[in-house]
Design brief:
single chain; 18 strands; Phage tail protein beta-alpha-beta fold; 13-stranded mixed beta sheet; Jelly Rolls; alpha+beta
């Protein structure tokens, strides 16, 4: 193969128009594999997102190793080819950078008796309750600040009137401009709760991805949405006490079992079965710090005609004392 033929081969290599016959001729050389390895080890830019496997796969198929003088000539052409590919790659990166692509999404989860504190890109502070999951972007690039929650979380929202803050849950969306509130909505829970500490929030109930009902909340209000009946209740509470769990202490003041049991289940990661007739009959006031669930149930048993039993699967049954 003379110089003109070699030049012709390299030009076709760069344009990607080598015929199958030419590829077959160039792929028969075992020396090209060694050249490939040496070039790759010496390359300073191999961390860039250029696909060297495809480049050298073509090169291995396009080099006649029987012609030794062709090596240095080929390297010059390879340098040109690599430079072209790098320019194309960097140009592509610059193009994508300037496009309005979705920001990377972070996912934070919490475990049993564990709270996770997070600061969002806009300065909003979030305290994630036990057994919960929060998804949020690395930056809010659109005209709203959207996050997704499963479980329990307390939000202290940074003020930005130009970008509403929205929390999306299953069939529920909560919107705020600058406020502090708690949401309690586990996938397997029968009720969803929203508690407002300050400011105002708008709770929207969705059906087929469309808001069919909205409720504006004021400070020290608790909203309960009963998922099975689609009924919504709003009542006055002491919001600071209700949300004290974010300090690591569960606090219950004159609460019934319907409210207490779901929170104990999430805090301890244990299922508590309770007779339905007991859910609204008795009220309790106590705090949970680092006590075991057995201790808490024992205290409750001492103040009401209740008894409990621990099952082999670590779950509990709460019944009326006989």
């Amino acid at each position: 193969m003379n110089i003109q033929e070699k030049k012709h081969i390299v030009q076709k290599l760069l344009s990607g128009t080598l015929s199958e016959e030419e590829k077959a001729r160039l792929s028969q050389s075992p020396e090209m594999e060694q050249i490939w390895l040496q070039q790759w080890e010496q390359a300073s830019d191999r961390s860039l997102e250029v696909n060297p496997d495809q480049l050298w796969a073509g090169i291995r198929q396009q080099t006649d190793q029987k012609n030794r003088p062709w090596k240095s000539y080929f390297y010059k052409w390879y340098s040109v080819a690599a430079s072209i590919l790098l320019v194309i790659a960097l140009s592509g990166i610059a193009y994508l950078w300037n496009q309005k692509t979705a920001a990377p999404v972070y996912v934070v989860t919490s475990g049993i008796q564990n709270l996770e504190k997070i600061q969002l890109p806009d300065g909003t502070h979030v305290c994630l309750g036990p057994g919960s999951r929060l998804e949020y972007p690395s930056e809010f690039r659109t005209d709203s600040r959207n996050v997704r929650l499963e479980g329990q979380a307390f939000f202290d929202v940074a003020k930005d009137p130009s970008k509403p803050f929205r929390v999306q849950m299953n069939d529920v969306q909560v919107e705020a401009l600058g406020t502090a509130f708690e949401l309690f909505n586990y996938e397997d829970s029968e009720d969803m709760e929203a508690i407002l500490v300050n400011g105002k929030i708008k709770v929207g109930f969705e059906r087929n991805n469309k808001v069919v009902k909205e409720q504006i909340m004021s400070p020290d209000e608790r909203l309960i949405w009963h998922k099975n009946t689609n009924k919504v209740e709003v009542g006055q509470i002491n919001a600071d006490k209700y949300t004290s769990w974010r300090t690591g202490v569960l606090s219950f003041e004159n609460e019934n079992l319907a409210m207490i049991i779901p929170r104990l289940e999430r805090w301890y990661g244990r299922k508590i079965q309770c007779e339905e007739s007991l859910l609204n009959n008795y009220r309790f006031t106590f705090k949970v710090r680092d006590e075991s669930l057995d201790v808490i149930l024992f205290i409750m048993r001492q103040s009401a005609p209740l008894q409990y039993k621990k099952n082999t699967d670590e779950s509990y049954i709460l019944t009326r004392k006989k």
